[in-house]
Design goal:
- With about 220 residues, this protein is mainly beta.
- It contains 1 helix and 10 strands.
- The protein has a single domain, classed as Sandwich (Jelly Rolls).
Length: about 220
Amino acid sequence: MDWKIFAAAPLAAVLLVASAAPLAPLNGWSSGSTGKTSKAYLMGIDNSVQFQGQRSISVQSQEGLVEADSHAGVIQSAFGYQGRRVRFSGWMRSADVKQWAGAFVRVDAEGTERFFGSGARKDLKAEDLPFGAGGSSSQERWMEVSIVVDVPNTPTAMVSMGAMVVGEGKVWLSAMRFEEVGLDVPLTTARIGMPLPTPEQRAAEAKRLAEKASRRIPPNLSLE
């Protein structure tokens, strides 16, 4: 089997006490978030929370700046696995979780990430949500998480993975591993926990946008 691994996971967990130290930048990763401001979530490396001596990536909501469907994540991507079954795993802990926090994996046939940003949420359906390993309650001790997905068999197929918080909460992910697995390994079916608009809410929003588009506002009454 062709194993492709970017970090090795240790066999046992040791939890170090967290401090309020600032998060360090994440080289080689990207990030995305929604919320009342661009600073609704802090994202980066938390040197103060370690798993068996290994640093952790972290996403942390900031009080008063997020809503139930606000979300943020740190993201790593992989290409060249089209038609393969892959697994993203690691060790996770979380705190102050009100909606959902954990690890996620998203597969996309076209090689584009459509999940983050308010525009992407307008027509978001349950089947569009990333696969997740985590929960709606805080996990104060390190726990192993694993997500297994099939990658579409298209030339531009992409796998996105990382740590995510929906709503309020904090998550840490360490000792990460990404690898190809056999077809005998069961697929993950759980999705991240994120509230989605009802059909009635979708219809009301579509009507509001249509009415807005049909109006013409006088463009320069103030003669600026």
